[in-house]
Amino acid sequence: xxxxxxxxxxxxxxxxxxxxxxxxxxxxxxxxxxxxxxxxxxxxxxxxxxxxxxxxxxxxxxxxxxxxxxxxxxxxxxxxxxxxxxxxxxxxxxxxxxxxxxxxxxxxxxxxxxxxxxxxxxxxxxxxxxxxxxxxxxxxxxxxxxxxxxxxxxxxxxxxxxxxxxxxxxxxxxxxxxxxxxxxxxxxxxxxxxxxxxxxxxxxxxxxxxxxxxxxxxxxxxxxxxxxxxxxxxxxxxxxxxxxxxxxxxxxxxxxxxxxxxxxxxxxxxxxxxxxxxxxxxxxxxxxxxxxxxxxxxxxxxxxxxxxxxxxxxxxxxxxxxxxxxxxxxxxxxxxxxxxxxxxxxxxxxxxxxxxxxxxxxxxxxxxxxxxxxxxxxxxxxxxxxxxxxxxxxxxxxxxxxxxxxxxxxxxxxxxxxxxxxxxxxxxxxxxxxxxxxxxxxxxxxxxxxxxxxxxxxxxxxxxxxxxxxxxxxxxxxxxxxxxxxxxxxxxxxx
Amino acid sequence: xxxxxxxxxxxxxxxxxxxxxxxxxxxxxxxxxxxxxxxxxxxxxxxxxxxxxxxxxxxxxxxxxxxxxxxxxxxxxxxxxxxxxxxxxxxxxxxxxxxxxxxxxxxxxxxxxxxxxxxxxxxxxxxxxxxxxxxxxxxxxxxxxxxxxxxxxxxxxxxxxxxxxxxxxxxxxxxxxxxxxxxxxxxxxxxxxxxxxxxxxxxxxxxxxxxxxxxxxxxxxxxxxxxxxxxxxxxxxxxxxxxxxxxxxxxxxxxxxxxxxxxxxxxxxxxxxxxxxxxxxxxxxxxxxxxxxxxxxxxxxxxxxxxxxxxxxxxxxxxxxxxxxxxxxxxxxxxxxxxxxxxxxxxxxxxxxxxxxxxxxxxxxxxxxxxxxxxxxxxxxxxxxxxxxxxxxxxxxxxxxxxxxxxxxxxxxxxxxxxxxxxxxxxxxxxxxxxxxxxxxxxxxxxxxxxxxxxxxxxxxxxxxxxxxxxxxxxxxxxxxxxxxxxxxxxxxxx
Lengths: 495, 495
Description:
2 copies of one chain form a homodimer. Chain A has 495 residues and is α/β, with parallel strands linked by helices. The first copy, chain A, contains 11 helices and 21 strands. In chain A, helix 3 (127-161) crosses helix 4 and helix 5 crosses helix 9 (449-459).
């Protein structure tokens, strides 16, 4: 098991009239023996550095490298023994939020995690707006702000851990197909039109300077492969985090956001489906929807006798709005308490002071606004959006299961990924049908699976082969054009 | 047999809902099949180009690539079918003169050859002066002027053939160890001191932009490996040109300039020797020494009865000065006509009007100056210098032969390289002992062997393995520190 970049300290024997091999040739001999590969690849800039460093230190140097197939690609050379300082950065490029995690590649420890709104948000909240903007020859702008967001996070993470960004020799990046394109400097606008085909899925190993990162300029950069326009490296990364491709039994990986993405499989086969799911779970769609941050309501219950709610907000902060898990709890509780019928309509016959007309729409008020602020409420429209997402999810799962002829109850584990998957209550999600009805203990929360997969690659570069293999062999279905989709979707729009 | 860069025109099948592989992934599939290698490597810049070109041409593109081990490294992508326009540049970086040859890699034809004084000459005629200058943190300056000389020649060669430098996708570079260092941007000044060790001998494959060439920026650049400070890639290149490493019989390769360089061997073993030989054959050392250019005397005879000379000058131009071959003819003829004794002293007892005191030194006048210009003459000092070179040459050959126990007469071919080796008369050279006494038909003139070897690599990239193998396995002896050197050298200073 080798980390994505590793370091080796060597003491290159001095040249002499008897051993008159050139300096770098003697160094190469020493490090390829340690790395156990026959070939070595240097960028010219590092050769120039190596020539001086070798002379200045009388051959006592630390080389950072990464193995690509049979070749050690050199990422850096430093004077003296720095072999215990080896750092990697995992990056998850979300359309909404970008997250970066700094890993100590010697201890495996996570030193810092930082997240921030993707700088592209200033050019459009949603992806389609950005793709439209990119299509008007503005793709470079979006590449620039995205890289600036990542660099800002790398700077924060490194500063918080007291290391210099130039000590980072390895970067693993997971993002959806469009974000991977933007990161590379490719214009993803081409994917808006049939046949919705990306420019590239399998991305060659890059150097940090190619993509303007502030890490060590020759740090190795691995970008997860995509499978199609709707199926990106973030999901492949999630699959790596789950270990689904290594299991004997069949497991299911669900990632729900603006898109529904699902993978079903084991170590022998994998099948995936993806498509748009409606915007229900994105912050900003419902009046009161928020990201999972302090103050967002993440848990809710409704007393079936009094119809009065109780709730808890993240970090115990003054409650305003709900994140995805709060929304799912609320809808499940409305249904269980009889305030909501299976078609998603309020049962207004049941009397409670919580029914209130807000902005001309009948609403159920979950929380009064503190200090005279607007209350947190939900409308039938919000519920309709959630049920649309759920219907897409059910369609996705059903099509996957039918395509391979597995029985639902044979699914060993259900991994849930996505930033709000962390907080979702499995009972609530199965109540409304967002998650399949299976024993609770089979559900495993990955949290940010995309970031976790990137971290896994940093710590074990051999799993790159697994990621590339998944992307190569997975059977991928487009949810929205699948012939069964509409039938299942229509009948699944009820609780 | 594959040229150093080759091109393939492909029509990448359009993407569809059924074949929804990404554009570049479909292209990769097509070209790795054609190239017959499993892997492909793209620089990011070319990926960005490919993404647009593929869309604009509906997949009709020409890809230029070069194979390094099992990997096709992409050097360029062009719209449409440009597969019949594929050009390479061979470069010989001499300390004195830089030569460039433009090759049509489709037909194998040489389209243009241009040579020019190495721009570094402005910082010192000889290498030691330049190394001293480089040692004073001025190495970058010397790298810059050298690259400028090469670029100027590439520009001239391409202009004369009516192609754009950016159509050049492959460059093969041969130069001595110091010149290779300067070319890469490495400071060779370190080699001035014991143990005289270069920074690098085996140079990884480069891209043109790394070394600021005006060819296609991603053109592949192969630089011949060196073996030691005095034994550079120019000699390895000469060995490639001679084919000495492929022969059954034993052959000898001689390269004489400021240094004596010699290789002896066959396909099973090779042994080489190099060392400084004195400046006799460099232009500018003798008063009348010139480069082999129009007007330089290249042939001379002396009538043994009248002691009157006849001569011919290059290109029939008005004669002034002599190049290396003229000098060797002249000394051989002086000796054969009895005007010179075996110790290199003039026999002034023999009376002729050609004896004349010039600048306070007794001289033999070969040619009167046309239109009142200075005559072309030779002094005992010039002869002494030549005999020093010849003694070094004999020492080199003798040590080589003794080291492997081959008899002189068993040498099948003697290849002579170096810019003035082209014109040397074998009889004259054997008369004075510069060349070993062997039948004339065994001598083969390579001309600029260094340039010829670079051309050979451009036309057959598989010979790179041969070049690297020679550099790896050759037994290399330092002439000037060899224990036998002084004895042989002393006794060989006579004709």
